[in-house]
Write a structure and sequence with these properties.
There is one protein chain. By secondary structure, the protein is mostly helical. It folds into 4 domains: about 55 residues; about 55 residues; about 50 residues; about 80 residues, no CATH class. Helices cover about 55% and strands about 0% of the residues. It has a two-stranded parallel ribbon with strand order 1-2. Helix 3 crosses helix 4 and helix 11 packs across helix 12.
Length: about 280
């Protein structure tokens, strides 16, 4: 099957509108900079639109007069640990969860976890208390995870939601099962944020959704249960949904060219799809 794209009625927004909205989101967050994820949650447009218009997300940040992100490799261990202690003091606690740190921390808990080989190890280095659950079995952890999901009435729960409602700590569960996604999988819950996804995985998913619909899927249709991955996963990989579709079609049709001499093409095999792809969310 040959896949073809059609993008019509694309609306172009003035550069000033895009930059003003970027500054507006930064102001609402009370921050001097904005990440792609933060903008996509609160912004009027899409981060991919801004990144393409200004030649990259960092260039857009600069043009909006905001502060550039500090590359993770340039952040000193001392700065990470000092900020961790600072947040603990603000909470007035001897132990804080990674989600509590993310609420007030300057960096990301994932950065600290990866830098020091685990959240508890970072807590230990700065002299904070570590909550131990050595006597708790894997089954008890999973059962409590299921219980929280049932109470919330959700097929997927975030680590933050578990910390607010669970008996144990999300970091304990993540460490016991290697990561949070594996714990969700073990509990039979839906995984919304995937790691280590290959380009082939993403293309195979688009193909399956396309064939199920019988037409080109829109980004809003890329959600569970129809799609294994959300369109946000694709924009992180390809910057925009349009780019993802174009790369998919290029890949799929190049494979078809290699085998077309041995496959009989019948009328109607090629689908012409018309869909509207607008930059504004």
């Amino acid at each position: 099957m040959k896949f073809e794209l059609s993008f019509n009625n694309r609306k172009r927004f003035p550069d000033r509108d895009l930059l003003d909205d970027l500054k507006k989101v930064a102001s609402e967050l009370g921050k001097e900079t904005v990440s792609v994820e933060e903008y996509n949650k609160k912004g009027r447009y899409h981060s991919g639109t801004i990144a393409i218009r200004f030649g990259g997300w960092h260039k857009a940040i600069e043009m909006a007069g905001l502060t550039m992100f500090i590359p993770l490799k340039k952040i000193k261990d001392e700065d990470l640990l000092n900020d961790l202690k600072k947040v603990a003091q603000e909470f007035g606690k001897e132990n804080i969860t990674n989600n509590e740190y993310d609420e007030r921390g300057k960096y990301g808990s994932s950065t600290i976890t990866s830098r020091f080989g685990g959240w508890n190890k970072a807590l230990e280095i700065v002299g904070l208390t570590i909550k131990h659950y050595h006597g708790v079995s894997a089954e008890e952890l999973i059962n409590d995870l299921k219980k929280v999901a049932k109470v919330l009435g959700k097929e997927n729960i975030k680590s933050r939601e578990y910390d607010e409602n669970g008996k144990y700590a999300s970091s304990t569960i993540a460490e016991r099962f290697e990561n949070w996604n594996k714990a969700l999988e073990k509990a039979g819950l839906v995984i919304k944020y995937h790691q280590n996804i290959t380009t082939d995985d993403l293309f195979e998913n688009i193909e399956q959704v396309w064939l199920k619909l019988g037409r080109q899927p829109s980004k809003r249709e890329m959600k569970f249960p129809l799609s294994k991955y959300s369109y946000a996963v694709y924009t992180r990989k390809f910057e925009t949904w349009k780019n993802a579709l174009e790369k998919f079609v290029e890949f799929s049709n190049s494979e078809e060219v290699e085998t077309e001499q041995t496959i009989e093409t019948k009328p109607g095999d090629i689908q012409q799809i018309n869909s509207t792809e607008i930059e504004e969310k």
